[in-house]
Design a protein that fits this description.
This protein is mainly alpha-helical. The chain has helices at about 10-20, 30-50, 60-80.
Length: about 90
């Protein structure tokens, strides 16, 4: 039986208590900040795992269709534009 992976916050707390003698002793302020930022990033990555990179972009299918139509219309305009007329 494999043990379940702990959330990043619990891993960080265990690391702090093992290596930095937390809570009896604390790391310097900047070091604690870096550790907490890394923990927040790891938490965000673990919650985003399994989702496609563009999952947030395609939520509104009507908007996506409108953008495709708008892009197609702009392409068509650039193709049919004739700038060779002399004035």
């Amino acid at each position: 039986m494999t043990p379940t992976a702990q959330p990043p916050f619990q891993q960080t707390l265990r690391w702090l208590s093992t290596h930095a003698r937390f809570p009896a002793q604390r790391l310097p302020e900047k070091a604690e900040l870096l550790v907490l930022i890394a923990t927040a990033a790891a938490t965000e990555e673990s919650t985003a795992a399994g989702k496609p990179a563009n999952a947030t972009l395609v939520r509104n299918k009507d908007f996506a269709a409108q953008m495709r139509n708008y892009t197609a219309m702009r392409r068509r305009t650039h193709i049919t534009c004739d700038n060779s007329a002399k004035t």
